[in-house]
Amino acid sequence: MSSLAKYRHAFLIGLQSNIVYRWNFGIRALFALFHLVFVFILWGAAYGGQTHIGGFDLNQTLTYFIVILMMNFFIGAFNEDYQISEEIRNGLINQFLLKPINYYLYRFSIFIAARLVSGLLVLLPLLIALPLLKDHIVLPDDPWRLVLGVPAMIMAALIQFTIAYIFGLLTFWFLEIQSFIILSLAIETMLGGQMFPLDLMPAWFFRISQWLPYYYQMYFPTAIFTGRLDMTTVWSGLAIQTFWVVVLLAFAQFLWTRGLRRHTAVGG
Description:
By secondary structure, the protein is mainly alpha-helical. The protein has one domain (about 5-265). The protein has helices at about 5-20, 20-45, 60-75, 80-90, 95, 105-130, 130-135, 145-170, 180-190, 205-210, 220-225, 230-265. The longest helix is centred in the last third of the chain and has 35 residues, at about 230-265. It is globular and about 65 Å long.
């Protein structure tokens, strides 16, 4: 079986598995829509008669949260870290040591399949709510945003998955990784722009966040598509995002190599 065929097979298995559990994603998407309602209420109150906050009007801010909700379901890591942890803990990882298959690419293929299913499912409640949302959706029509936004979105997915992969690999050294994941999730929610648009924060906070990988997970591609970043900032951001992709991939490979040594040394 060729290399491409192996990962295509993994993708198809992941697709079938996630379609079976489609209701889980569907319910999660429905709850996300309810969360969006509270976001609308909260930011409506925050504007409270003001036309602009941080240079953006209410509809631009609401559009940001609609797009970031879609981003979360299309490129966000859900429970990949726990799945990898379980495979290491239960010894299922051993089968990959005997086969000519790259474990990272295998898991990433399944990740893509899962996000395809969850992304399409989140569109259903959004389409149902579209008559109520359409007057609030304000997207720029600059063609370059699509051209640069798509690679930013792909690299954001790589960063999302690789961070989850890294936390999963920590199981080689720690029996329980939940505390690490919870801490990372809290930081990601704050520095990834999921709680509020980062450009509304103090300038020093925003500048610091631009050098961290969390900025490039959700905020960066969302800000490109919603017109919150100009072209110069986007180009420099793509360079930094590429840097983080390379660093995280290298670190993941380092942990995998060291983890396997420890795994085989203790008789895994």
